[in-house]
Amino acid sequence: MALATVSAIFLRWLPQHGFPIMLLFAVATGAAAAIYFTQRRRYSASSQGMVKESVDADIPAVFWTAVAGVMLGGLGIGVVLFTS
Amino acid sequence: MTGDQATTRDPAPPTRGKIADRLLPGGQEPDPRFTLANERTFLAWIRTSLALLAGGIAVEAFTFDLFVEPIRKGLAVLLLLLGMLLSAGSAVRWLRVERSMRNKAPLPLPLIVPLLASAGGLAAAVILVFILRR
Question: Do the Cβ atoms of B50 and A69 come within 8 Å?
């Protein structure tokens, strides 16, 4: 939800910075969609893990969420510095 | 198989992926509540980093009449950079805490807290100075 909100806020930059903003919008929307469509599987794995008293640490989910944040920040800095 | 045999049989050992074996070697699986709590803390840091990203955009997009361009861009870059570092730092912290829990070691100090406090304080001070000087 937070990523979807941020993706909408990125659109506010469209008049000033033009087309590169769509890249930021795409990354934020893609990450939000990926989280939304996999949340049932992750919730199910967590619930079953609680029952079995063993939950595997979800390394790929943490890694890709962090990568999305780093990409958004990096692209945002690039947009601010090079497209106005 | 009798009922007694079924109840005393050891559960199958959990299967872990290669990535988990490499990044989280050794130790024992922690209590699942702690693993999930660590993940929730990571997500809270990610939300903070997203708020900083949105703040950077807001400064750049909405403060034309408040800041001269270099200051406006500098503030926006500072906030975006902080959001970016926080995203990466939260993943590193998640990994360090997970390793500590597996090895029953003391939890590491959160290095991203002083980073957030100092850079956030700097950004707030710059904004305050410019608002007071208007």
Answer: yes
Predicted local confidence at residue A29, as pLDDT: 92
Q: Which amino acid is at B74?
A: G
Mean residue pLDDT across chain B: 83
Write the pLDDT tens digit of every residue in B23-37: 888 778 888 889 899
Q: By the 8 A CB rule, do A77 and A17 touch?
A: no
Q: In B, which residues are within 8 Å of A57 by CB distance?
A: 20, 24, 35, 38-39, 98
Q: What is the pLDDT of residue A54?
A: 79
With b meaning 16 or more CB within 10 Å and e meaning fewer, what string describes B91-115?
bebbbbbbbbbbeeeeeeebebeee
- Domain total in chain A: 1
Q: Which domain holds residue A53?
A: 2-82
Q: How many CB pairs under 8 A join A and B?
A: 117
